[in-house]
Amino acid sequence: MMAELFAAVEIISAKRDRQELSDPQIDWVIDAYVRGVVADEQMSALLMAILLNGMNSREISRWTDAMINSGERMNWSALDKPTVDKHSTGGVGDKITLPLAPLVAACGAAVPQLSGRGLGHTGGTLDKIESIPGWRASLTNSEMLKVLQDCGAVICAAGSGLAPADKKLYALRDVTGTVPAIPLIASSIMSKKIAEGTSALILDVKTGNGAFMSEPERAKELASAMVELGKRAGVTTRALVTAMDVPLGLTAGNALEVRESVEVLAGGGPADVVELTLLLAREMLDAAGVNGKDPEAALKDGSAMDHWRRMVKSQGGDPDAPLPIAREKKVITAQSDGLISSMNALQVGISAWRLGAGRERQGEKVQAGAGIEIHAKPGALVKKGDPIFTLHTDEAARFERAEAALDGAVVIGTSVAESLPLVITKIV
Length: 428
Ligand code: URA
Fold this sequence. Notes:
By secondary structure, the chain is an alpha/beta fold. It is built from 16 helices and 13 strands. A four-stranded mixed β-sheet has the order 1-4-5-13, sandwiched between helices. The chain has a four-stranded antiparallel β-sheet with strand order 6-9-11-7.
């Protein structure tokens, strides 16, 4: 047996005492953790020391590289088009990836999009598309390349070979209160995106009550850290910090969000979803150096929809099959006459989750039809008794807790409360 280069306790103590970790220490601790030489309790202590004492940009960059090097790095040089991807830090009703990937493909770039499942109140892209009958999230690398070649875009699950250190670390962070640390979030997201092999990347960092980073200043800090990591790795990376204080669009829930995305691809859909989709599409095409078709034209002329249908079919899905519908429905109405002043995104997200759209533990099944339809948003005039939400679930017993989550979520008054602008800042 080879002697180990370091002892985990030395590295934990160094970070506890606010010292910088050296490159060899970082390389070793990640590798030794994946090999099982560093135990979960030791890595937990180190993660907590990082959360409390931080890491400088050299340490974050090395930590990210060590996570990338724990697995494979994908390569799309066989394609004849530049690759570009988008990552969102997640929010309520954030279904943008669904219309965006085929739209950008229709405009001439290739989109290799490795996505995740939802945990907690923010949904996951794979859970949403899996509501399409037959659609398969797991592809081999060669299947992924084939879908990209044939359709210009692929949305699928990251295979087990991609940044395996992150899989192990993320599961540990989830149960040790060490998720909300900027160095750990930035390295976790960027290790997967860099290993995915995209040449350009647009980050949509959400902020506001329904986002993971509710404070705009913290969201900007995270965005800057991720842009720096991308650039260091040679990926053209830009970030938009965008609003998540009000739900995006008029649906939150898996099949409900697919339906809304298809409306956008058909040239309709809610204005905020269309606006953000077009904005991100233009950023992606610009970052990839592609000046093909204008995205607005691709939504209107049906070419984005054609790419969506091809992409769904090539992963076993039937784009014409009816989407699942929940067995039970309940309408929530306005308590008084007036103008909807505000709508709390976090409360809507928690309610959709309690209806069965999300999961509490990794590996749990979600209900395809569960979620919330929103009938009136801030700025709308309503009368007492008008519908505001329709709750959908397969189990009526879930209504009570879902309704409780919405308590006070909608304020009806005489004016619209100040809300965040759609784009708060752009970091290049
Ligand atoms: N998403 C990730 O992939 N990693 C994090 O740490 C947080 C969100």
